[in-house]
Amino acid sequence: MTHPIPKVDHAIICGSASWGIRFPEDVAEPGVTVLERDLTFATPYGDVGEWKLVELDGSITADGAPRRVLVVFSHGWPLDEIDHEGTRRVFSVLQQAGVTKVIAMSTMGALNKAILESDFVVCSDIIELTQTKYSLLPGRTRFDCSGKQLFCPILGGVVEATAKEFWPKEARVYGPSAGLVSAHSWGPRLQSPAEATAYRSLGADLVNHSLAPEATLAREIGASLTNVAFVTATYLGYFTPAQRPIIGNDRRLELAPIASRIALHACARFPADADYLGPALRSSQPAIHYDNR
Question: Which residue range or ranges hold the Nucleoside phosphorylase domain (predicted)?
């Protein structure tokens, strides 16, 4: 059974930065209420489940008005198969909902030697040389989508300020001014040493499996996007001897509730009336491009 898609302005795409907890229930943040859960929505590309509708009380929002937020589990990926088209289904839902501001949560591998495990990172650009084959655009001749400012500096600045308030002081917080670039690898296999070297040589500071297609699709629907992420693998870690288990005793379970709290507070603090460029960076092509044929 599918459910009607509610109209909302904000969305949080959960990922590995919140794995291991029920988001947002386990954060137990005052002013945050789950209105509905276990929602499934229909899209032209198939149904997508694991959604919640969350309300942020006006007592914690920037404009004093309640905010309803759509939340999806783990990028909308199916639980029982590898299906990279899940991202397109998620953004089809966000497009139908009228979402204009998106937070994408994830963990990342560092390709910059200066970025260490547990550092908090807000990205500014991506390297995704194939772009996404799972586009939402209605053909090649209807819209142009700019590749500039794929990450909103206004939203990113709010995330940075919020992270500096909550993130452990022994780790660092990198905001939009750091200009960090994230490379994309579809996964689910982790990067090989040669791949990590190649991405780094192209100018990437970080790499993960989800953020780049989300940034592209946010541009395609005219939404502004930022990310909440922290580092779980350092660059030098790609060159250590093979080991078991693959994922060691990292701090993910300790940091996931903190990252989740940052996402909720940042979403509540986003300005309601700022000059967001997201919609303007997708422009319609002249009708003659598709009428004259």
Answer: 88-235
Q: What is the DSSP string of 198-255?
A: HHHHTT-SEEESSHHHHHHHHHHTT-EEEEEEEEEE-TGGGGSPP-SSSS-S-SHHHH
Beta bridge partners of 68: 55
Give the residue among 98, 4, 96, 110 at the shortest CA–CA distance from 44. Answer: 96
Question: Is residue 97 a contact partner of residue 70, using CB atoms and an 8 Å limit?
Answer: yes
Calpha distance 17→214 (Å, rounded):
15
Phi/psi for 68 (5° steps) reads -95, 140
Residue 42 near residue 1, CB atoms below 8 Å: no
- The confidence band for 109, taking pLDDT boundaries of 50, 70 and 90, is very high
| 137 vs 72: CA distance, rounded Å | 22
What sign has the CA pseudo-torsion 14, 134, 158, 200? positive
Among candidates 148, 147, 202, 151, which has minimal Cα distance to 174? Answer: 151
**Residues in CB range of 272: below 8 A, 6 or more apart:** 62, 63, 65
What percentage of residues in the chain have a pLDDT greater than 70?
98
Domains and CATH numbers, the chain: 10-291 (3.40.50.1580)
